[in-house]
Each structure stands twice: as C-alpha cells, then as structure tokens.
C-alpha cells in the first residue's frame, strides 16, 4: 500500500458558515459577537430573517443569559445586511430586493436603478400584480423608463441564500431503479442490480453447522451453538426471500406500466401517454393499490428520453369529440406548449386557451383549464405579460 498517497476530500462551506466567516470581519466584542451569531442562526436557507426582533431578544435572554434591546438587534441586522450575498437578512421579499438595489446603486447610480427603487418602495403591491399602467402614471415614467426599471428588478435574486444551496443540489444524482431500452423494436426492462446486490448465505456458516452435526459428542454448549447457527441461517433465508419478493413486485409493477405506456417508451412523446390510474396497474399485477402507489411515488426509471419517476406515467382520462379517451397529461403538454409559444406581450387568457383546446377536439371546461394551468405552475395571463 502506498503510504504517501493523498486522497482528496471535497470541502463544502455551508451558507451559514459563509455568513459566520463574514462575522469575523466585524470589529465587535465577544458579547456582541454572540448576539450577531444568534441573528445569523435565525436566518433561513433562503437568506431571510423571518424571526421577529422581539423574539430574538427573548431567545438571547432565556438561552444565553444575554440582555439586549430591539435597537441593538436592529443595528446588528443592518450590519449583517451588508454581507454577501446581497439581499441577506431581509424580513420580506420587498426588503430583500431593495437591499440588492441599494448595493447596486452605490456601484452604479443609473436612472433605471433609482426608478426601480422608487417602484419597490412606493408601488410594490402594484409591481407584484403587474399593474404597470398605475406605476407609470404614479411615477410619470415613459415606456422606455418603465421597461428599464422592471428589467433591473427581474435580474435580482428573490432567494439570496438559495444560490449556495443550488450548487449542492446540482451535485446530487438520481439513481434509477429500472432501465428500459429499445432493442431493435423490442422493449427490454431490467432492474438496477446495484440497488439490490445478489444475496446468499455464507458458506462459513454452512460448514460450521456440518462440523457440529458430524461430531460424536454434543455437550450443551455445542447444542446451543447449533441452534444459534440454525436460527441465523433461517433468518438469512427469510431475508433473502423477502428481497426476492420485493424485486419481483418492483419488476411486475414496472413491466405492467411499460406495457400500458409502450408507445411512449418507443417515442418519448408525452402526448402519446395513455390514461392510467393506480387501479389499472393493481388489477394487471394482482397487487394492492397501496403497494403500487408506494412504488410509483418512490422509484425511477431510466429511458432513452430521460429519467422519470414512475408517478409521471399516471394520469386521469379526458374524452375527445370523437369519444376517444386521452390522458390528461396529453392535454397538459398541449396546454404547456400553447403557453410557451404565446406572445408574452399579449398572453393567452384561460378562455382563449379553452377555445383552442376545444378546437383541437378536447372536451374541456375553462375551470379545468385553470386547474391544469395551476398544476403546471403557470401564472394567469396578466402575470405572464412582459413589457
């Protein structure tokens, strides 16, 4: 073995560690440092200080026996708000965005930055609801001024603390439980054996049992040893059988899904997904619905078109003008494509989206379109409008 070999270790600095490092740059005494550490510890992963100032005063008094005032806490919060990333330790979104703009204003006092500050200070509610005409009238802005100010705001981060978390999330991987490949026009399903290694009983235990059985004299200690080994072997057999049963359940469930959604696994086209509910797969596999549900919610399959949670393949049905049943996922995909292709200067209303879907032959009500739009996390038309 190479003793001089160095194994590199990945070192990560958490978001809160990063803030605590910056605390060390403040010229403050030990007592004030402990107060500042309490404030930093109260900042959530998004970078917001959602704990009330009075509550922080109480926390320090009861937990650390430090008497302080709301004024002292507020002064320290203002100092922490100058830390990186900009927008840190804000109490709400408005303050978070303004803190970032104040920092930008110091570096570059453009008119658009000053106008964006005025919008957030005096017309924050109107900005969140995209009532741009009211903002324009109130601040006497030209179309160009308004567009420049809005562009400054939309470049800001609503979650300043989330940026460090996103880097760590990007390094996490999904390990699929199944693989489906198209082998010359035939779908092949395999279990990920790395997730479930081959199990067998150690030959050492079998040999020990044979040795004891061959012995002519068996004292009490040997009999207890034989009984102990037999119990362990029986437990191991039961465990191996349980794992095999689990693998069989997983394979049966995925195989039934693959057969039901065969067209999708050949093409990768979401609109080819057929209506499928838990009951359909439960009936095909003779498994309980709750068992199918657990598999669907927790397992992933890797295909030529990406890796999907099994839950992705389940959807309700919707009838067309011809009486054919189609998957609601198909309708959602078409709805999503419509919104993606719309003019952002004149986005499509729910009524217009309903008309367009009905023209394509889908019997769908406006309230259903609104429900699907919300499930897709698509805001209403007014909030999708761009300048």
Structure explained in plain terms:
- Helices cover 57% and strands 7% of the residues.
- It has 19 helices and six strands.
- A hairpin with a 2-residue loop joins β3 (300-303) and β4.
- The protein has a four-stranded mixed beta sheet with strand order 2-1-3-4. It has a two-stranded antiparallel ribbon with strand order 5-6.
- With 387 residues, the chain is an alpha+beta fold.
- The protein folds into four domains: 15-80, no CATH class; 93-154, no CATH class; 178-310, no CATH class; 317-384, Orthogonal Bundle (Arc Repressor Mutant, subunit A), CATH 1.10.10.
Which range does the strand content fall in? 5-15%
What's the average pLDDT?
Answer: 84
Overall domain count: 4
Q: What Rg is obtained from the alpha carbons, in whole angstroms?
A: 31 Å
SS element count, helices? 19
Instruction: Give the class from helix and strand content and strand pairing.
Output: alpha+beta
Assembly of the depicted chains:
single chain
The residue ranges in which pLDDT falls below 50 over 5 or more consecutive positions are 1-7
Give a count of the beta strands, DSSP E runs of length 2 or more: 6
The shape, in one word, is flat
Order of helices and strands: HHHHHHHHHHEEHHHHHEEEEHHHH
**Gap between N and C termini:** 66 Å
What is the share of helical residues? 55-70%
């Amino acid at each position: 073995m190479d003793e001089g070999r160095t194994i590199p270790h990945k070192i990560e600095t958490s978001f809160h560690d990063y803030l605590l490092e910056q605390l060390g740059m403040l010229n403050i005494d030990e007592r004030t440092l402990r107060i500042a550490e309490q404030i930093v510890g109260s900042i959530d992963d998004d970078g917001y200080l959602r704990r009330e100032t009075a509550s922080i005063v109480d926390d320090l008094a009861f937990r650390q026996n430090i008497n302080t005032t709301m004024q002292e806490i507020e002064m320290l919060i203002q100092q922490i708000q100058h830390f990186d990333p900009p927008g840190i330790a804000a109490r709400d979104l408005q303050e978070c965005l303004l803190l970032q703009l104040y920092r930008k204003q110091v570096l570059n006092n453009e008119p658009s930055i000053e106008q964006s500050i005025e919008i957030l200070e005096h017309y924050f509610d109107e900005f969140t609801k995209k009532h741009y005409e009211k903002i324009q009238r109130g601040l006497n802005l030209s179309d160009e001024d308004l567009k420049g100010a809005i562009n400054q705001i939309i470049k800001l981060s609503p979650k300043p603390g989330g940026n460090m978390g996103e880097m760590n999330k990007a390094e996490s991987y999904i390990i699929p439980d199944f693989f489906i490949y198209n082998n010359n026009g035939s779908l092949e399903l395999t279990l990920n054996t790395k997730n479930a290694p081959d199990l067998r009983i150690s030959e050492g235990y079998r040999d020990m049992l044979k040795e004891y059985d061959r012995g002519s004299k068996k004292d009490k200690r040997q009999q207890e040893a034989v009984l102990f080994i037999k119990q362990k072997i029986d437990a191991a057999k039961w465990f191996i059988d349980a794992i095999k049963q689990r693998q069989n359940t997983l394979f049966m469930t995925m195989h039934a899904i693959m057969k039901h959604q065969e067209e999708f696994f050949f093409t990768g086209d979401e609109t080819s997904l057929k209506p499928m509910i838990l009951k359909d797969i439960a009936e095909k596999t003779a498994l309980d619905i709750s068992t199918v549900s657990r598999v669907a919610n927790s397992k992933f399959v890797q295909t030529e078109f990406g890796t999907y949670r099994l839950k992705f393949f389940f959807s309700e049905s919707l009838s067309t003008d011809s009486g054919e049943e189609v998957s609601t996922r198909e309708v959602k995909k078409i709805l999503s494509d419509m919104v993606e292709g719309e003019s952002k200067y004149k986005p499509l209303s729910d009524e217009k989206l309903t008309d367009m879907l009905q023209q394509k032959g889908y019997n769908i009500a406006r309230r259903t379109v609104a429900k699907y739009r919300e499930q897709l996390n698509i805001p209403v038309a007014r909030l999708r409008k761009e300048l």
